[in-house]
Amino acid sequence: MTHKKLTTRTVQATRTPGRYRESGGLMLHVRAGGSKQWVLRTTIRGTVRDISFGSVATVSLAEARDEAAKLRKLARNGGDPRVERRKRHVPTFTEAVDAVPALPGTRVSHIERSGGIGQPSEADIALSNSASVAVTVRSAAMQVTAALST
């Protein structure tokens, strides 16, 4: 069965809840509340599975097609895309702090943890340099994300 190719305009304009299919198993899933997400329907070791991989707000149509092609290839070669996604390493708090690139003339001078043992509910990392710059964990996390993604 062939399905009409989705277009960027169609994806943005579609408001009616439902699943809008494209060839290759890629679907646009529009929920009753109006949110839209990408879903791939593929066969993994003889079982049909639906794999969700992002919101339309964060994943473009072109990116969705590329990701669907990667997941289909993995499934076709005997792998399980769901298991591979679970294997992605999520750094611990300490690994994240250690991964923040050292800026010339700065050092991590203080980490304040509150909450449960070893589980900071709020952490404040103050970097001391000539300007006495204070960096919160949120901005440090953005730096870590950038450092780890390169």
Structure write-up:
With about 150 residues, the protein is an alpha+beta fold. It folds into two domains: about 80 residues, Integrase, DNA-binding domain (Double Stranded RNA Binding Domain, 2-Layer Sandwich); about 55 residues, no CATH class. Helix content is about 35%, strand content about 25%. The chain has five helices and seven strands; from the N terminus they run H-E-E-E-E-H-H-H-E-E-E-H. The strands form two sheets. A four-stranded antiparallel sheet has the order 1-2-3-4, with helices on one face. A hairpin with a 4-residue loop joins strand 1 and strand 2.
Instruction: List the secondary-structure elements in sequence, H or E.
Output: HEEEEHHHEEEH
The CATH C-level class name of the largest domain: Alpha Beta
Order of strands across the widest beta sheet?
Answer: 1-2-3-4
Provide mean pLDDT, rounded.
74
The fraction of residues assigned to DSSP E strands is: 25-35%
- Helix and strand content put the structural class at alpha+beta
- Helix amount, in percent? 25-40%
Our count of helices gives 5
Supply the CATH superfamily name of the largest domain. Integrase, DNA-binding domain
* Radius of gyration of CA atoms, rounded to a whole number: 21 Å
Straight-line distance between termini: 40 Å
CATH architectural label of the largest domain:
2-Layer Sandwich
Shape: globular
Got a strand count? 7
Low-confidence stretches: 109-135
Largest sheet: 4 strands, antiparallel
CATH topology of the largest domain: Double Stranded RNA Binding Domain
Count of separate structural domains? 2
